[in-house]
Amino acid sequence: MQKRLGRIISILSIINIQSICICGCTDQNSSYLQDYGQMVNETEADSNASDTSFNDVAESESLDEAGIYVNTGDTITVGFSQIGAESDWRLACTNSVVSAFTAENGYNLIYDDAQQKQENQFKAIREFIDQDVDYIILDPIVETGWEGALLEAKEAGIPVIIVDRRVSVEDDSLYTAWVGADFYLEGARACAWLDAFLSKKNIESEIGIIDIQGTLGASAQIGRSKALEDAVDTHDNWTLLAAESGDFVKAKGREVMEQMIEEYGYKIDIVYCENDNEAYGAIEALTDAGYKIGSDIENGDVMIISFDSTREGLELTLDGTIAVDTECNPLYGPVLTQTIACLENNTYLQKESYVLESQFSADRTVYSTRIDGNTYKVTILSQDIIDQRVY
Ligand code: AHR
After folding, report:
1. 37: CA distance to ligand 1 center in Å?
2. 287: which of 4, 84, 108, 296 is 20 to 30 A away, CA to CA?
3. pLDDT in tens, 153-177
4. Are 271 and 302 within 8 A, CB to CB?
5. How far is residue 157's CA from residue 154's CA, in Å, rounded to a whole number?
6. pTM of the entire structure?
7. CA of 305 to the centre of ligand 1 (A)
8. Helices then strands (H, E): number in the chain?
């Protein structure tokens, strides 16, 4: 306990409490972080070089070939509260964390699957505290309601690293660091692609959009839904016909789509699925109802927009079923071991860090998008790019 107290005090003294979203430690390469797929110039966009972004691995003495921090000291016990197994993305995320926190790398990982219930995450945190773990990693199902559990961890002197989604707490000393995605930017990139696509095709007709949202209250839902609402507000001919949660799962995506077909039928031009699994369900429902899926919306196609860029999602993007798939990076294992390396080594750690993300389409109409004065690359998808990906 004495050892932990000493360590916590030193950790707190080195953490910069400001929320500047840059990168992890100063002595670790942080190529996973803070790129946003943003480009320096338009030429790079048009060259359309293959971009596997977060698969780039850092070079650092304490990283192994897979970019995983190799701890050479005592075993570090880490409790990981994962949301569940709702999507292909989630499985890839779990796999990345479990593969990084191995006994071989010096970790004892206690993994807990909360099965989509916040109460189970509270319970897991309490159990980790009872087990006196060295660190807690929390992927929070929703943003609100965390004060009590996080305070208990803080009072027990256990640093909590929040991953992927965010917690919304007034006192940010309740967690040590956050590493995750800019979900609003993901949504804004999807909408900017649609805007650029419609402009280049000179499509000015009414556009009816359905939003199959993620789990309500989850950061990934909040950001992506808000970006769509904002884009609809700035386009006179875009109408958000309906928004309903598909909970990030295929079956619910299908159910919501069936309902929307009944209600809005051929008014639907675009289905904005907030993850790939929902897209799989929506595609099934549309196909079964006799709709044609594709980008020729002027001739009756229904266009699918999706998020995550999982392998199956990208295969559907390559054949044009999904028009554009904006990546959500699940490969948190190496980023998290680097975060813990910073804390173990008392090196400077940014309080909040974003991971690298790309955007893929097989359609060659749009090579880049502009958002708030920044240019973002659209990677034109090929089988080679899919084959190079690690999940
Ligand atoms: O929080 C990340 C989101 O959660 C992913 O987009 C989704 O697939 C997952 O379930």
Report:
1. 19
2. 84
3. 999 999 999 999 999 999 999 999 9
4. yes
5. 5
6. 0.87
7. 15
8. 12, 17
